[in-house]
Amino acid sequence: MKFSTKQIHAGQHPDPSTGAVITPVYLTSTYANEYLGESKGYDYGRTINPTRVALEQNLAALENGKYGFCFSSGMAAVQTVISLFKPGDHIICSDNVYGGTIRLFEQIIKNYGLEFSYIDTSDINEIKKAIKDNTKLIYIETPTNPMLKITDLSAVKNLVKGKEIITCVDNTFMSPYFQNPLDFGIDIVLHSSTKYINGHSDVIGGCLITSDDKIAERFKFLQNSIGAVPSPFDCWLILRSTKTLAQRMKDHNENAIDIAERLTKEKKIEKVYYPGLKTHPQYELSKKQMRGFGGIISIELSSIEAGKRFCNALKIFQIAESLGGVESLVCHPVSMTHGAVPMDIRQKIGLTDGLVRLSVGIEDKEDLMEDIENALADL
Ligand SMILES: *Cc1c(COP(=O)(O)O)cnc(C)c1O
Asked: Among the three residues 221, 242, 263, which one is the final residue of a domain in this structure?
């Protein structure tokens, strides 16, 4: 089945009691046994909920995986991945992952005796050098935020062949429509469904998808034991959103490709970062492992003042954290999302004070371009 069919039908069945075409919001914390010990497979709402099951099956299908697990946030999904490991285990992590992920690893998980190395995973030799006897996980984000660097997923898979190392990819930026890490042999896919999967900026959620039976069994146990599960209503909202994921992603992509190309011709912009530009150093790799390039563009302006002035001058693009919604947003990472990242790391990854990140929405692209041009004229 093709993506646009799966997004509407996978995991969705007319409700057995009424025939309702849309999966109901099952607001119940518990389920009655017909006779003692005879349940219908449902016992308690933290453990299982029919609206959640429908979403989990839907997302698993979209990522070409066997099992899906939903959580109350993307961070709860990251916590669940990390809970597979124990003190003494070593984890290799992309040096430019989501700030909240580094905060969780450095300020919480490290206290429990796990060891982390942060490296540029877009350089496969760096990963090779970082692997130790106790390495248990390689945690990758591709493309990265906000520098949009790409990690070669097939190369990572080849590198860990025959080793007991689990690989996990945070696929939030591409969504399942443009990239399916499991197809490259990656073990776990993670999403902040808050972003493109939900896409309407009205839910916080996360998910994990895998085809590995053993990892799935552990995730089921951890999801129930930790208890960071989403509400049935949030699951229902996300299910409503996945039905249009392909259509939204096509629009994000088409707008962003065109806008990124036009931005390269603007004199006040020193650099444009977008994996869909032929000048992106990993354009060929992007084409190989992604079916599109997404809606995130980063641009470099001359100074911190120029970055701030540009954001303030935009009218359609709203200044806000987050990304992946239908509306366009702008973010100045140094003053907002990446303010806590130490200076030396910012320099290492190329995150300058004048860097601005655009989350290109699905509005009319001429309106968006006009908004950007007006803001640039102000500088
Ligand atoms: C937002 C985000 C997260 C965290 O997800 P929440 O839903 O905010 O908890 C993780 N990874 C990436 C790439 C994100 O953009």
From this structure: 242
Same-domain check for residues 172 and 265: no
Measure the CA–CA gap between 324 and 201, rounded to whole angstroms.
Answer: 8
Statement to judge: residues 146 and 46 lie in one domain: yes
Task: Give residues with Cβ within 8 angstroms of 48, minimum separation 6.
Answer: 41, 42
User: How many structural domains does the chain have?
Assistant: 2
CATH code at 306? 3.90.1150.10
Shared-domain flag, residues 106 and 194: yes
- Indicate whether 164 and 103 sit together in one domain: yes
Q: Are residues 238 and 249 in the same domain?
A: no
Atom 1 of ligand 1, nearest CA residue: 192
CA of 103 to the centre of ligand 1 (A): 12
Distance 73 CA to ligand 1 centre (A): 8
- Ligand 1, residue 324: give the atom nearest the CA: 15
Q: Which domain does 262 fall in, by range? A: 245-377
- pLDDT tens-digit series, residues 204-261: 999 999 999 999 999 999 999 999 999 999 999 999 999 999 999 999 999 999 999 9
Q: From ligand 1's centre to the CA of 259, what distance in Å?
A: 25
Q: Give the residue, out of 79, 97, 98, 331, with the most ligand 1 atoms within 8 A of its beta carbon, to mutate for a pocket test.
A: 98
Average pLDDT over residues 19-48: 95
Give the residue from 103, 137, 96 showing the smallest Cα distance to 119.
96
**Do the beta carbons of residue 185 and residue 154 sit within 8 Å?**
yes
pLDDT of amino acid 245 = 98
Atom of ligand 1 nearest to the CA of 193: 7
DSSP string, 256-324: HHHHHHHHTT-TT--EEE-TTSTTSTTHHHHHHH-SS--SEEEEE-SSHHHHHHHHHH-SSSEE-S---
Q: List, chain by chain if needed, residues with CB within 6 Å of any ligand 1 atom.
A: 73-75, 98, 100-101, 141, 145, 170, 172, 192, 194-195, 204, 206
- Ligand 1 atom with the smallest distance to the CA of 97 is 13
Residue 160 shares a structural domain with residue 46: yes
Catalytic residue numbers?
46, 98, 170, 195
